[in-house]
Amino acid sequence: MITRRTLLGGSLALGLTGCATVTRSTDIAALNKPVTLPAYRRFDGPKPDLPRSHPLMPDCFYKFPANPPRVTDGAPGDGTKLTGTAPTSNPIPPSADRNKYWQELNRRLGSPLDLTITSATDYVNKFATAVAGDTLGDVFNVEGTFAYLPQFLEARAQDLTEYLSGDAILEYPFLANLRTESWRGCVFSGGIRAVPIQRGVMSSSLLLARQDLLDKLGVELGSPTVDDLIKLAKAVTDPKQNRWAFALPPSAALSAMLRIPNGWEVRDGKLVNAKELPEYKEMIAITRQLQTAGLIHPDGVAKNNQKVWFSQGSAVLTQDTYSSIQSFYRRSVSPGFAISLPVVRDGDGKVGRFLLGSPNNSIAAIRPGSPERTKLMLRILNWMAAPFGTEEYLFRKFGLLGRHYTLKGTDPVLTETGGSEVCLGEFPIQYLADGGYPVYFPGHPEGVDVAYNHLKTILPTAILPPTYGLYSPTQSTKGKIMDTRLDAITKDIQLGRAGLDSWDDAMANWRKSGGDSIRAEYEQALSIQGKR
């Protein structure tokens, strides 16, 4: 066992004091000890506009339901002060004393919330400072990949197993409405130590196309194979018109076309990493070909400005997530702006193997406390997870009618004040708890149809990595550095600064520097959980 005093999180010195002990980083069995996951009970809320054709299909709505019902009875709080820590990717909203939304939020919670909000780009460093100063608060968002996460949660987070395992979660119906796979990402060292910030399939990367530009150019995208995609890319690229086929290398689409595994895959009883396979090297070779032919935006490999290029029409195709679609609608200034989602196919003409993103954006943990305090915090988080189509969700995302939003039909539209006080509809409590993400793009029902039809086609092929929800100490401590090295050599190959054969040397080094250890740890964890 290691003590709190010696516990480190990568470069994050947790500064934990006291006599309690946490699990050794070498005890794979204890770190991956299974637990009975929370029961899943779908909330009987407003009926989606489109049928759920697959268990992973998100609810799809053309419009926000009229007259959304209030589904909670009274405030969940007890009047005592609540504290917390959360990130935001938007401008930080005005503080509670200058923010009518925050004041109304406190009233509805029944307890004042003192929330420390930090820009997402600074969150890791500020989190480390808060850990050292013991100022994380009652509930705090945790980025799920930093080193020694199980030991940190054992030391600093409440074990929620007795409150949430199995049918116990039914006391909190909106948390029970979160899908089982999300809870797998909250289990560490044999305990449920957090709640999921669920995103589901909406976080998965895929190929997006500017359908309005394709129509203007008279080019049919259809359901392409690799050869079809390259042919189309040549047809739409015109540097003199400041237009390229791709904003960045289309790795998600190519992975599906080449049927590459999602991270890891069990083959002949042994775990194999996707990057070890010849088809992954083939994918790199194709992206190098695209770059050499001038079909990717000139800065597409080196820089990440794809949202701007795609929105402005400098790129006809980009790689992003389902959840990004609304942001593109919001950004666009082009008349007739339209998005399509091509269903890519493999060499045999079959639907490509879709690689699901992580079910969770992140997780949120509760500070250890008495049973009464823990239940209070769970009631608060349950309220924050009220699903789409409820009055609670409408307030949480859009604030107060008149001040923060107006209605266009039944769809809420943020006002300028709403954009500021409600943080563009993403007030950071969404990183403490949230309901599942629906397919809903206000004012763009055609986008709902596009996403739904794509999901209906690809979900039967969709896969999560077999290692999801498992913990590898080596991945935790070395994974980011190893991935950074591979990303760097990938870019060098794509830009012609290194030969394709350098990938073989990079993977040999990856195995020696930790890849084989990660494999062995995951194989042991899989065996422990009976997944082999």
Provide the fold topology.
Layout: E1 2-3, E2 8-9, E3 12-13, E4 21-22, H1 28-31, E5 82-88, H2 100-109, E6 113-119, H3 123-133, E7 139-142, H4 149-156, H5 161-164, H6 173-176, H7 180-184, E8 187-188, E9 191-192, E10 195-198, E11 205-210, H8 211-217, H9 226-236, E12 244-246, H10 251-257, E13 264-267, E14 270-273, H11 278-292, H12 306-312, E15 315-321, H13 325-331, E16 339-340, E17 360-366, H14 371-384, H15 391-398, E18 405-408, E19 411-414, H16 416-421, H17 445-458, H18 473-494, H19 502-528
Parallel strand pairs: 5-6, 5-7, 12-15
Antiparallel strand pairs: 1-4, 2-3, 7-17, 8-9, 10-17, 11-15, 11-16, 13-14, 18-19
General description of the model:
The protein is α+β, with helices and mostly antiparallel strands and 532 residues long. It contains 19 helices and 19 strands. It has helices spanning 28-31, 100-109, 123-133, 149-156, 161-164, 173-176, 180-184, 211-217, 226-236, 251-257, 278-292, 306-312, 325-331, 371-384, 391-398, 416-421, 445-458, 473-494, 502-528; strands at residues 2-3, 8-9, 12-13, 21-22, 82-88, 113-119, 139-142, 187-188, 191-192, 195-198, 205-210, 244-246, 264-267, 270-273, 315-321, 339-340, 360-366, 405-408, 411-414. The strands form 7 sheets. A 5-stranded mixed sheet has the order 6-5-7-17-10, sandwiched between helices. The protein has a 4-stranded mixed sheet with strand order 12-15-11-16, sandwiched between helices. A hairpin with a 2-residue loop joins strand 2 and strand 3. The longest helix is centred in the C-terminal third of the chain and has 27 residues, at 502-528. 45% of the residues are buried. The model is unreliable at 1-19 (pLDDT under 50).
